[in-house]
Write a structure and sequence with these properties.
Blueprint (H helix, E strand, L loop, with lengths): L1 E8 L3 E3 L9 H11 L4 E4 H6 L10 E4 L9 E4 L2 H10 L4 E5 L1 H7 L5 E7 L7 E2 L8 E9 L9 E8 L3
Parallel strand pairs: 1-6, 1-7, 3-4, 3-6, 4-5
Antiparallel strand pairs: 2-8, 7-10, 9-10
């Protein structure tokens, strides 16, 4: 099963100057709980935004033409290679960003894990809008920030309306 996971603010912002423009501990815990032990696919810019490090306890695919020689980083040269990796996986796979990867792989997705960060932040990268007719909201939970100065968030899980 192909899953997408991302956080966006109330305007659809997912990034600003190569980073997420907020810190939300609850969202990071949610991300870890869902993706831990599963392969993740990301674009090169997302990889760079994470300090060019592999996420621990996950098989890390990076879409890039660059030659990467790091432990637990597996480069994929094209979307076709990503599709093959998804098809060959014996477990769920999570797409974690960025926008180009989301746009290209969304037709293959089975489930979406969307976090809405309750706030408005500076933006230079936005998530493409979801086709509400294609997706069915199956779960929604509002979570209050557990740390001072951090935003509240809403966890939403979407599944395909039809297969």
């Amino acid at each position: 099963m192909l899953n997408f996971i991302w956080a966006e603010d109330l305007n659809g912002t997912i990034g600003y100057q190569g980073t997420m423009p907020w810190h939300c501990h609850e969202d990071m815990v949610h991300f870890r709980q869902l993706t831990n032990g599963f392969p993740v696919i990301m674009g090169y810019k997302t990889f760079v935004s994470m300090g060019k490090r592999a996420l621990p306890h996950r098989y890390n695919y990076v879409l890039t033409h660059r030659h990467l020689q790091q432990t637990n980083i597996h480069p994929l040269a094209s979307i076709d290679e990503a599709q093959k990796a998804i098809q060959q996986s014996a477990t769920d796979v999570f797409v974690i960003g960025g926008v180009s990867v989301f746009e290209q792989l969304l037709p293959l997705a089975d489930r979406l894990y969307q976090t809405i960060i309750e706030g408005h932040y500076p933006s230079d990268t936005k998530m493409p809008p979801l086709n509400q007719q294609r997706w069915h909201l199956v779960e929604q939970n509002r979570v209050r920030a557990g740390r001072p100065g951090e935003p509240n968030c809403i966890f939403k899980t979407w599944e395909l309306a039809t297969k």
